[in-house]
């Protein structure tokens, strides 16, 4: 059963920064309080414990970020099972050097 070990593609935070000018879907899977503490403007907050409720028919490719990269990897596996093509952001917000915005 090699299906369990499907490789989730990943990119660096630097690569993500270069993609933000295009129309990408970025999911921040941290808790709402972490998200409010500072997030990437384009990111939509879908906490990991709610990831299975995410649905957006128009997006097949979704970028997933968390604080360090562990929760986003977990979320990416769930999203893959749901038919999305997730891309994990390695290092997460702890590696992010770009602009952040606080609040909702």
UniProtKB/TrEMBL annotation:
Top-rank taxon: Bacteria
Family matches, as PROSITE patterns: RHODANESE_3
Coiled-coil regions, chain positions: none
Residue ranges constituting the Rhodanese domain according to the UniProt record: 20-101
A UniProt-annotated Pfam family: Rhodanese
SMART domains linked to this entry: RHOD (SM00450)
Protein name, per record: Rhodanese-like domain-containing protein
Lineage: Bacteria, Bacillati, Bacillota, Bacilli, Lactobacillales
């Amino acid at each position: 059963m090699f299906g369990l070990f499907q490789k989730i593609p990943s990119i660096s935070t630097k690569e993500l920064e270069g993609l933000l000018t295009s129309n990408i879907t970025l999911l921040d899977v941290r808790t709402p309080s972490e998200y409010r503490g500072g997030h990437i403007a384009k990111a939509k907050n879908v906490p990991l414990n709610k990831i299975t409720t995410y649905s957006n028919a128009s997006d097949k490719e979704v970028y997933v970020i968390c604080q360090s990269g562990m929760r986003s990897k977990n979320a990416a596996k769930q999203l893959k099972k749901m038919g999305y093509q997730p891309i994990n952001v390695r290092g997460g917000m702890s590696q992010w050097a770009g602009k952040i915005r606080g609040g909702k």
